[in-house]
Amino acid sequence: MKETLLEVKQFKFSFDTYAGEVQAVRNISFHVKEGETLAIVGESGSGKSVAVQNVMKLIPSPPGRIIQGQIIYQGEDITHYTDRQMEQLRGKELSMIFQDPMTSLNPTMKIGDQIIEGIRNHEPIPRADAVKKAIKLLTEVGIPDPKDSLSRYPHTFSGGMRQRVMIAIALACNPKILIADEPTTALDVTTQTQILELMNDLKEKHGTSIVMITHDLGVVAKMADRIAVMYAGKIVETGTVEEIFYQPKHPYTWGLLQSIPKVSSKRMGKLETIPGTPPDLIAPPKGCGFASRCKFCMNICKEVEPESVSISASQSAKCWLLDERAPRVEREHEEVKKYS
Amino acid sequence: MAEPILEVIDLQKEFIGSRKKRIRAVNNVSFTINEGETLGVVGESGCGKTTVGRTIVRLYDADGGKVLYRGLDIHKADRRTTRKLAKQIQMVFQDPYSSLDPRKTVLSILEEGLKIHKLFRTKKERIERVYQLLELVGLNREHANRFPHEFSGGQRQRIGIARALSVNPELIVCDEAISALDVSIQAQIINLLIDLQDRLKLTYLFIAHDIHMVRYISDHIAVMYLGTLVEKASTEQLFKNPLHPYTRGLLEAIPVPDPKHEQQQSTLKGEAKPLTIEHEGCRFYNRCPFAKEICRDSMPALKAHDSGQTVACHMVHSENW
């Protein structure tokens, strides 16, 4: 049995704004085990980035505010760690890469210095050794001419190369968990494949766990072991990658899977869509957050929030349809159709 | 047989890069779009697809070649004709946040084109038209007096589409019109575009990098790489039998949303780098797994292949392919 590295328990997080309290994360729980990849999927505004940025404590307070819950890393409650305590963890135990590699690297520092800074913050080694290590890291992530690259500035690299540099910095101190927030969204498809393959290789080699945020189900299928589907600040369904793709239980998950175009042309029928837009999290709905867009919405859905129902040891979903008193409904397209 | 509405012939566009290097963003691109059809243009960033779109709506002037709209060279047209053309060819932009004036209400955004082209005599008629447009794109008339910031991304893109439609155009250039939206909203907008095409007999030039969506909406697809058109085919043909090594690599690179799908290792290594004007030979040469000497020395021309599509590759056209 693999050890659980990170556990987030009943976590609630809000932002105080002039318009009112935005309940960005509304009571979520998830965990990450050693060496596995957890993918968090959902639309923008579903709270997926807020959830993981909290693990790294990257959201300033105010405006952010923890309402309740715990974040436990290797048995230790880090929910209320100070900045100084977090510095010991960031980079060394937990690392993060971001969507936009242009704005997340320091444009005024040579990339060599940015990597070395990270290494020497955590390990008291001479600069010359750190340089050697930086060269090794750049080679590992596939930067051509690693030695010369050390003295180049971020703007001289392409998007894909910058993301490789980000990964090198993130992995500099062999973190146990790598958090990747939409790491390939800003990249072209052929570059995306290269970066995803690189992440998978590094995961195999170092046994790093990955928490990946994305909205691309193709990327999820390629990378994830387990998936958590977020909607309106809640995890509505969670399970292994096979469970979510082949036996999803929540209507929102069905909708997500169906909105990938399966028919190959417009002559063959309309694209499935989820009508409407996500609810306003300043005044979240009383019942299920998805009720207003759900085809199968019942009276109870608007009134009472559904409890999490376990379907298997690894899968659970929050939906009233899973209640034994609910009518049986069938998902319209049973299977994810094969691509030609 | 549908008539060609737009013909692009040997289009060229250059930009001056750093250190005064001349970069050819679009290099001898030719294609035609028939009336009522959709041509999808795909390619990675920097391949010149947006530049092509912008040159067609005359946001840029061409440095060479011609753009013929119903036989009329749009870059040689006089002012009056240009104004008429602006009514015929409209554009929907990528970013629904920055392409709408934040200080204007939806009404004044949608009314602007109507005023410029003097389409209605009275304010009352114009307002009626704006209401009609809003309903056409799935919004309602109460939205007319609101400001762009009060809308979500998907709704804003609907306003962008309504603005393009306001002057009754025939051709709409959609430049990454859905890229900034969420997946579930993308499908809504695509359905809207297809629905409008059927009802208003529109022609689309649909520029995007998401090949799934392009596949869905397009009748024909043109694949661009570093300013050149490398392959052109009907949508069905392109997916069934991609010929150009770049097209193949591009299709292989798309992650398939099925965990049981065994994805091949990517065949495309490296990345596209902009080339200066002096570059000879195939632009894909340094990344191509099949490259031979001839590919380095001369640029392959776009030629018809036996299977029906046109492709620019020495190797594909050689005998022992």
From TrEMBL, chain A:
It is found in: Cell membrane. Keywords: ATP-binding, Cell membrane, Membrane, Nucleotide-binding, Transport. GO terms for cellular component: plasma membrane. The keyword ATP-binding applies. It is a peripheral membrane protein. Residues 6-257 form the ABC transporter domain. GO terms for biological process: peptide transport. The keyword Membrane applies. Its main location: membrane. Belongs to the ABC transporter superfamily. This is Oligopeptide transport system ATP-binding protein. It comes from Amphibacillus marinus.
UniProtKB/TrEMBL annotation, chain B:
PANTHER family: D,D-DIPEPTIDE TRANSPORT ATP-BINDING PROTEIN DDPF-RELATED, TRANSPORT ATP-BINDING PROTEIN. The keyword Nucleotide-binding applies. InterPro entries: AAA+_ATPase, ABC_transp_ATP-bind, ABC_transporter-like_ATP-bd, ABC_transporter-like_CS, Oligopep_ABC_C, P-loop_NTPase. It comes from the Bacteria. SMART domains: AAA. Keywords: ATP-binding, Nucleotide-binding, Transport. This is Oligopeptide transport system ATP-binding protein. The lineage of its organism: Bacteria, Bacillati, Bacillota, Bacilli, Bacillales. GO terms for biological process: peptide transport; transmembrane transport. It comes from Amphibacillus marinus. GO terms for molecular function: ATP binding; ATP hydrolysis activity. Belongs to the ABC transporter superfamily. The keyword Transmembrane does not apply. Residues 6-251 form the ABC transporter domain.
